[in-house]
């Protein structure tokens, strides 16, 4: 079988700015409506790592690491919808993993769960 040192893997890396609103948004996960962002210290990024076997039938996996508290079913579903529209069945829930670094220093309002929506004063599309 193929191992981690096999030179026949293809490796892809990508980074995308996901900063969202820099001010006047509740910070993720504090559950304190008065904890509002008031500026920008660092830009937030989504970093993607893809490992694939060569060829059209080669297996692959995509791992996305968000500079956000967490991902969610809503985030994952929307990402998979966009991937399907662009790449067909190349990326699915079986080979895409999305994870957050669990920071509370970024904006909230991007999860579909009631507790998070209440403390973020609603869904914030830019987040």
From TrEMBL:
Cofactor(s) for this UniProt protein: Zn(2+)
Cofactor note as given: Binds 1 zinc ion per subunit.
EC number annotated for this UniProt entry: 3.5.1.23
Annotated Zn(2+) binding sites: 102
GO CC annotation: extracellular region; membrane
GO molecular function: metal ion binding; N-acylsphingosine amidohydrolase activity
Neutral/alkaline non-lysosomal ceramidase N-terminal domain mapped to chain residues: 9-127
Listed name of the protein: Ceramidase
Organism for this UniProt entry: Opuntia streptacantha (Prickly pear cactus)
């Amino acid at each position: 079988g193929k191992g981690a040192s096999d030179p026949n893997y293809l490796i892809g890396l990508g980074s995308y700015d996901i900063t969202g609103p820099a001010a006047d948004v509740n910070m993720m996960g504090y559950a304190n409506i008065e904890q509002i962002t008031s500026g920008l210290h660092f830009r937030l990024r989504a970093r993607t790592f893809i490992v694939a076997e060569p060829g059209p039938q080669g297996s692959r996996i995509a791992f996305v690491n968000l500079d956000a508290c967490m991902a969610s079913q809503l985030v994952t579903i929307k990402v998979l919808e966009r991937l399907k529209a662009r790449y067909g069945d190349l990326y699915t829930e079986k080979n895409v993993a999305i994870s957050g670094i669990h920071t509370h220093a970024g904006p909230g309002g991007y999860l579909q769960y009631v507790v998070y929506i209440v403390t973020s004063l609603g869904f914030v599309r830019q987040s």
